[in-house]
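Hi F.,

I've been meaning to write this up properly since the lab meeting, where we talked about keeping a consistent format for the predictions we share between groups. The idea is simple: the sequence comes first, exactly as it goes in, then the structure tokens exactly as they come out, then a line or two of notes. No screenshots and no reformatting. I'm using this chain as the first example so we have something concrete to point to.
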Amino acid sequence: MALRMADIIKKKRASPLKYQVNYGGYKFRLSEEGMCCLPFADWLRAHKIKFLHIPNEGKRHPLEGLAQKALGLNPSASDYLILSKVPLHPEARGVFIEMKTLKGTATEGQLKFLDSVKEEGNIGTVCYGCDDAIKFMESLGFGR
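Output, unedited:
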């Protein structure tokens, strides 16, 4: 299901969850980064690319955060893990994408995480917005 600009209901001011979205009949709020991720996820689905979104964003109660870390949540993990075989790099084991807004910057931890996944034979990068992420995926041979 593709997100249309008409589906963005309003921008909230006081919250980091700035955008209220109507998606598939459900209303929810997203951050600016989430607004980059949603159309990218739609693009991945439209091209039948297997992927996971790693839900690191959001505020949690400290005990919930501790429980999530105990279960394996890595706060520096990339936003997306692409599981489909990489058409132009069949030797790659996976693709990790850290999604940022156009003005966003990756943290030192996120950059170290990407370095570590590259050492394991994966492809990893930071993308600035949905268009950048799609161009990156196309450069790997996806979506053709």
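Notes:
Confidence is low (pLDDT under 50) at residues 8-14.
The CA atoms of residues 14 and 99 lie 23 Å apart.

If this format works for you, I'll send the rest the same way.

G.
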